[in-house]
Amino acid sequence: MIEIRHLKTLMALKETGSLVEAADRIHLTQSALSHQIKDLEERLGCTLFIRKSKPLQFTSAGMRVLQLADEVMPLLRSAQRDIDRLAGGEVGRLHMAIECHSCFQWLMPTIDSFRNNWPEVEMDFASGFNFAPLPALARGELDLVITSDPQPLSSVEYVPLFRYEELLAVAKQHPFAKKNFVTEQELAKETLIIYPVERDRLDVFSKFLTPAGLEPSDTRSAELTIMMMQLVASGRGVCALPNWAVAEYLERGYVKGIRLGEKGLWSTLFAAIRKDTLDSAYMKDFLRTAQDVSFRTLSGIQPADRRTDE
C-alpha cells in the first residue's frame, strides 16, 4: 500500500533531483530515505527511478506515483485547511514587511496562493526600505517579516525558509568575469551597487567586507533589481545579490555571476514571527506555502537545515 509519507518522499526527489537534498527537505537521514524508497519499491514490485542517473530519471512506475502525489497532496492540504477553519483558526491578520528586496519572485505567488486559501485573513505588506520592520513586529504593528538578518528579540521566533548563495554580478567585459571567485580585497577596489538600506543589513557588507575591515571604493544605490543589472551590464559597478535574483540575467547572458570568496557566501532567509502567533493555523499554512513555492520556483537554494560552509 502506498502511504502519504511515500508521496512526500517522491515529490521531494522530483523537486530536488538528489537523494541527499530530498532527505534534507523532508528531514530524514539519507539512509532512512533510501530505506523508505526500497520499502515502497518492494511493496509495488518495481523500481521507481534509475539509480545514479543525472539528472534523476523516474521510471514509468515512478512517474505514475508522482502523478498520484500531484493529485492527492493538494487535496490533503485543502482538507487540513478546512479542518483548521472548523476548529476556529480561520480569522486573523497577516501584515508583513520585506527586508529581502529581491523576494517578490517567489513571495507574490505565495501571497496569491495564500489569499485564495485563506480569504478571511486580512493581508497587507510594506517594503522594508524606510523603517525597521523587526522592532515593529515585536511591538505588534506587523505579523511577519522576511529577513536574512535576525535580531535577538525575546518575543520573536525566526523560522528558516531556505538557504541561498550571494553572487557578485559583473559585466561580461569585467576582469572578474574570468575568475571563479573574488576576494574581499579585490571587491574593495570596485564601485558597489546596493539597495538603499543600511549597510549592516546587506550580506556583502556584514558577512564579507566589514569582517575584513574593508570598504568598497564607492557605492551607488538603486531600488530595483533590473536597474542594478542595467548599471552592472553597462560597466557602472558590480552588485551582490541572491543567486535566484540574478538567475534570469545570467541565463540570458546579460551579466556574469561570480562567487564571493573561495567557498562562496551563503545566508539563510527567515520568516520572523511573534511567538504568540506562531501556532495559528493560517500562519503555519503561509510558511508551508512559502517553502513549497520557493523550492518550486527558485534555482540554487537549499533546505534551511542543511549546513553549508560560509
UniProtKB/TrEMBL annotation:
Keywords from the UniProt entry: Activator, Amino-acid biosynthesis, Cytoplasm, DNA-binding, Methionine biosynthesis, Repressor, Transcription, Transcription regulation
GO CC terms, sorted: cytoplasm
PANTHER family: HTH-TYPE TRANSCRIPTIONAL REGULATOR, HTH-TYPE TRANSCRIPTIONAL REGULATOR METR
Annotated protein name in UniProt: HTH-type transcriptional regulator MetR
Gene Ontology BP, a term: methionine biosynthetic process
Family assignment from sequence similarity: Belongs to the LysR transcriptional regulatory family.
InterPro entries: LysR_HTH_N, LysR_subst-bd, MetR_PBP2, WH-like_DNA-bd_sf, WH_DNA-bd_sf
Compartment list: Cytoplasm
Residues covered by the HTH lysR-type domain: 2-59
Pfam families noted in UniProt: HTH_1, LysR_substrate
Upper lineage: Bacteria, Pseudomonadati, Pseudomonadota, Gammaproteobacteria, Oceanospirillales
Molecular function per GO: DNA-binding transcription factor activity; transcription cis-regulatory region binding
